[in-house]
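We modelled each protein-ligand pair independently. The example shown here corresponds to the guanosine-5'-triphosphate entry; the chain sequence is given first, followed by the ligand as SMILES.
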Amino acid sequence: MSNNSKKKDKEKFKVKVVLIGEAGVGKTCLISRYVSDSFDEHSKTTDGASYVAKTIYSEEYDCFLQFDIWDTAGQEKFRSISKFFYRDAAIILFVYDITNKDSFDAYENYWRNEIKVHGDKNVILAIVGNKSDLYENEKVTDEQAKEYAYSINSNCYLTSARNNVGIKNMFEELGNLYLEPTFQEKRNKEINERNCENNENKKNIVIIQKDNNGNNNKNENENNDNNKNNKKKKNCC
Ligand SMILES: Nc1nc2c(ncn2[C@@H]2O[C@H](COP(=O)(O)OP(=O)(O)OP(=O)(O)O)[C@@H](O)[C@H]2O)c(=O)[nH]1
Ligand SMILES: [Mg+2]
């Protein structure tokens, strides 16, 4: 049997990845380089968000992994929309431009709190210094970025979408971190707990129905019993 046909039967995992960061740092270009090996010198600013998928094979865990990659808009006027995309993301890439210190500081000044408020608890975070080809104009050194990343328990990468440097390796490393059994365990626990919370919330919904005589009948969620049964079955909370 060929290697390819052997791989066909392998398990496939999916992971949601979200790219965030200030406008113009190169989020869209990083994704285009990774997914379609292209680079646009005149890339237009993203309005809203867009999605693209790419599947890789992990030698380390002997399985496929599909990255569901969400590109968000860096411009302030779109930020209220962008936060909706953090939910369920297991990997968040904060991208800054190494020639623009403000774009790096923006993590501490703004994005850190956004992730804390809107993101999942168990998330793999990476601080990504893009435009490494412009190193002659760098305003944030590799050491600074590494030190900061370490202080917030994050991973740290240097990339160039223009020259195709560091991107493939970054996705592969982060993909393997996602597939690590200890991380999977933590994620599953969090998702399970969230499902339980949602069930609890549904249970508390009170439905008022009028009967044939026009009287109000309080129906404290028909699904109550179902929820209880489900809860027992899943043994989740
Ligand atoms: N020199 C250099 N330029 C880059 C690189 N990546 C992106 N650019 C340029 O930076 C500009 C902005 O890139 P985008 O990918 O559109 O930036 P963005 O972060 O998606 O911006 P928003 O969508 O507005 O949030 C474009 O002119 C790109 O050509 C890189 O690695 N090196
Ligand atoms: Mg963009």
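The pocket of magnesium ion (ligand 2) is lined by residues 27-28, 45-46, 71 (CB under 6 Å).
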